[in-house]
Structure formats: structure tokens, C-alpha cells
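Notebook, bench 3.
Goal today: get a predicted structure for Oxidoreductase from Bdellovibrio bacteriovorus so we can plan the truncation constructs. The sequence was checked against the plasmid map this morning, with no discrepancies at the termini. Length recorded as 461 residues. Pasting the sequence as submitted so the record is complete.
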Amino acid sequence: MSTTALRDLESILKKDQIKTDEESLKYWGRDWTTYFDIKASAIVFPHSTADVVALVQWARQNKIALIPSGGRTGLSGAAVATNGEVVVSFDQMNKIKEFNSVDQTVVIEPGVVTEALQQFAHSKQLFYPVDFAARGSSQMGGNIATNAGGIKVVRYGLTRDWVVGLTVVTGTGDVLELNNGLVKNATGYDLRHLFIGSEGTLGFITEATIKLAANPPPMNVLVMGVTGLDAVMKIFAEFKTKTPLVAFEMFSDKALRKVLDSTGLSAPLATECPFYVLAEVETRNEQDQEHALGVFEKCLEEGWVLDGVISQSEVQAKTFWRYREDISESLAKYSPYKNDIAVAISKVPPFMEDLDQVLSKAYPNWEVVWFGHIGDGNLHINILRPEGMTKEEFVKECRKVDVMVFDAVKKYKGSISAEHGVGLTKKTFLNYTRSEAEIQLMRGIKKVFDPDNIINPGKVI
């Protein structure tokens, strides 16, 4: 960045809203990916929509790219600065502004942390249901920009389903107020949904109106040891059709062992099994509890489940969830190469079998850890870096096999990114999920909202 551009920037924002020291550039210039060299030129902290408008106008005038940044928990490189960009962090736009008890909505700034919104909803005897392990650090602006899903999609859907209004600043500096919290609005294109899941490539979200839900009833959590992949889907069908199912997660024995080694938790079952399923069901009364137990017993009788346990308290339920939610943290020390893919739920067993063959052939001596939101067809593959292999060598080898993995995804008409986004890591593979006609339309949409290509350039497309 030139001295003139920096001086102009300092005339827009206060001194404490700009950081250019090396430590800050590295800290705010990255996300949870670890494979990119960070080269940010400055970090800025807007306090209002007006600040963001001024930043966009400054960026257009100086031909400097801007990178939207939230909690930086992403895994696709969508929030990393690699080419001298200015990172726009929303850490200081973190207010919960207006609550409407009639509409059961709340207006928030993009820097509000997911868990803070959940706690606010709880204080109003309501519920924000989109949930995942990074709830304590992820920010709502980033969640909206990636259409975050998480662990309760089976029951509550994605972030998209809870956003009823957005204020955005486009790459031209225009401020758009989209949908204004309306339930019904049949007046042409709903531009709100273009920004949800856009990975910050069309503009900046500066305010969101979020719908809240009624408080959920009590839950029971079941952990079940499973005979194989076919059994996983049979169990899912049984719980989905016969219980008020909230979440349905799967993890492999390798994943469980990593969690036990990392946390010191005791194994959930006496029987060692190749796969485990975690199911969460609503239990509004004693009858619901008996019904859930009956479904569990049916799965045992059919031989799909080898062993299992049902939570007897809220504390125990939280412990059961740790077997699934602590997987990523337990793998972090291995610098895993991650893929986040999805197919139609009914295609999960044959898809996983095909993929297992691909990975076993490609990595006969490498450790591959599976887990996923099986209830919505989303699988997470974690390839652990072998000891002694450099990061560069590891990534190079993994990217070779990406082609085979995504060929399998394409065969089953799935998605190369279920919830982590495209960012930088999967941009070259977008055509495995989207047709050339779709990609050209995406480019056209990008040009309309960001004609100078200054908002998160080089990401997604």
C-alpha cells in the first residue's frame, strides 16, 4: 500500500481502527487453513455501515482489494489475505441491537459471536438453533457468508433459514436493505439469498435480522456402536421416521480414539466398533423417552447396533456430544488435510465405499479419519500428515488425490463443499459441482455487485 493510500485511509478511520504491525497482519490475515502465506497490507476495524461505505470508496479509488473477516474459523481460505489486501475485520461491530418480541427477531451486527447470540436468545426464552463446535469463536457475519450448517440441520436447517433481513454494502459502495424482516415478500429477486453463502465476494454484511425459535423440549442423546455403513443408514431411517430427530452424526473408530487420547475421556461403550452414531432426539415427555428407547431396541434386535447407551442427564448428554465435537480439535496437531463433501442422503453408503477404496489405494500407509453429519449427507475426510513429511510435500500429494475424490463426488452428483465453502482451496474444482453455464452466471453476478473486483477477489470463482 502506498504512503498516500495509507494517509487517505487514516483520514477515514481513527488510528485505533487500523493495524499494520507484522503480528496483527499475520493474526487477522488468516483463517483456520494453514497452507497459505499471509501477505496482508493492513487490518481495519469498521464501527458502522458508514465506515464500510467509506472503506469501499477508498478501495475503489486506490484500486486496493478488501478481504471480509469474521471469526476466521473457515477452512477454505476464503478469509485469507495473500496478495497485499486490506483485511476488514468485524471484531468491533459486535452489538446485539434490537429485539422484537412479537416477530421473535433480533437485529445484530456481523461480529456477534454465535454463542453470544445463542445466549441472548436463551435470555429471552427463545432459541437460535444453528450450532457447531466453533460456536464460541465463529461470528454471525461469517456464518451468513458461508451459509453455515452444523449439527442440527436435520431438524432446523441451515443459517439461510434463519436470516430474514440483511443490510449489505456492495463493491460499488451502495447500501442495500434486503427483505427488512418480512415473512412474505413476493417482489422479484430476493437478493438477500445471493449474499448468504457468497463467501464475502459480493459485498459486506453490516447488519442482519435473525429469526429465533421457540425453546426446544428436553433431549436424549444416544451413542451407538454400528456394524457398518449400510447399518448407519438403516438406523438413520428408523430414527428419522419414528422419532423427532434433531441430529444424526457418524464418526469412525479412528476418530473416537483420537478424541479419547486427546481429552482423557472414557470410551462410551464397552464394545469396540468400526463406526459410531450419535443421535439426538426430542423427548417432551415420558412417552417420547419410551418411544426413543423402543427404536433403539429395534436397531439392536436387527443387528444394526452392536452396543449403545442413552444419556440419563444433561451433563452426560454434553459428554456424549464431546465424542463428536472434539474430533477436529483432537486432530489439529496432525495438520490434517480436510475435505468437506456431500451427496444425497440415500447415496451415502455406496459413495463412502467408493471413496474408501480411492483413499485406501492412494494412501495405503496414511491415516484417514472420517466423521460427518450423516443426517444431511455431509462427510468430513481428514488425512493426517505423516510424521517427517513437510507441509508443502503433504499438500502437494493430497491435491493429487483431490481429483479422484471429486471424481467420486461428481459421479454421485454431490458437492465438493458441503459447508466450508470454496474459497481458495476448492476454486479450481468448482466445475465438479457447478456447470460452466452456472459458473459464467456467477461471474456475471460478481461483476454487477463488484465491478472493480475489489471485494475478496480470487475467491470462489
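The chain has a mean pLDDT of 94. Residues 76 and 421 are 6 Å apart (CA to CA).
Flagging this for group meeting.
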